[in-house]
Amino acid sequence: MSRERATRRGARAGNPLQGPGPALFGILNVTPDSFSDGGDFLDPEAAARHAAGMLEEGADAIDIGGESTRPGSDPVTEEEELRRVVPVIRAILQAHPDAGVSVDTYRASTAEAALEAGARIVNDVTALRGDRRMAALVADAGCPLILMHMLGEPKTMQKEPRYDDVVREVRDFLARRADHAIAAGVDAENVALDPGIGFGKTLEHNLALLRNLEAIVGLGFPVLLGASRKRFLGRITGTEEAKDRVFGTVATTVLGYERGATLFRVHDVRANREALAVAEAVWRV
User: Fold this and answer.
1) How does pLDDT run across 241-262, given as a tens digit for each residue?
2) How would you list the strands of the sheet with 263-266, edge to edge?
């Protein structure tokens, strides 16, 4: 890793939401059933090695999830989520004490344990609707918070999702949830928004959101884009295996950056980092 990259990552580890240039969240699913890498990193040591590789490739933070939110998935118990997530956070930070770690959870109990173990960011796919205690916990912790749009719940979200105007509805939902978080005491500078690509959306819905991402950026919060390896990319490219959708993912990253997104949740860090480096060089003035 270059000295410049290490310095930038260290400066952003406390709050990757704020800082010069785009930031990458490396995806680390410690689950048996995630759509792309389910079962690959259940062992804490294997997970820590994979996290180390993503950090070396330029990840600004590692986003760790212990419950799959793929379409059709079932929730796990609080105890199981904690058993999966906390040892991995500790293993990563033992090897890389300055690494930024995000916990992907809607449970306040999991978020609290993760923060105590050294995580610095909470990524809530329910935008504070899954656990009424989460807003107060994040406010008290003073940590960054990512709020995502999801229509319904993972088990049923892809069963004929419908909108009158997907861009307007997602934008208005995220605006309301940001207001809710701030009213609960979360610092506005700690809030980021995620339109939830693939979470209760058809191919056409996803494309409309990508095409009109400026509408969400215009709310004034950092926007995170999480399109990595998702099924709609396979429908466009004809790529069946999720792990083969790297090029489609990179395209969404560059297009999202052009439209104002600054945070990107990805499986393939190096490919997306290099694409963003070129995009930054072209658009820098």
Assistant:
1) 999 999 999 999 999 999 999 9
2) 191-194, 145-148, 121-124, 101-104, 61-65, 23-29, 263-266, 224-225
Spatial neighbors of 211 by CB under 8 A, at least 6 apart, are: none
User: With 70 as the cut, is the pLDDT of residue 16 above it?
Assistant: yes
* CA distances from residue 17 to 60, 85, 110, 167 in whole angstroms, order as listed: 10, 22, 21, 23
* Closest by CA position to 127, among listed 228, 195, 74: 195
Structure letter (DSSP) for residue 189:
G
Give CA–CA dist 224/24, Å, rounded.
9
Residue type, 165: D
Give catalytic residue positions. 230, 265
Task: Let me know how many helices (H) and strands (E) the chain has, helices first.
Answer: 11, 8
Question: Do the Cβ atoms of 265 and 225 come closer than 8 Å?
Answer: yes
> pLDDT digit string (tens) for 145-181?
999 999 977 766 677 789 999 999 999 999 999 999 9
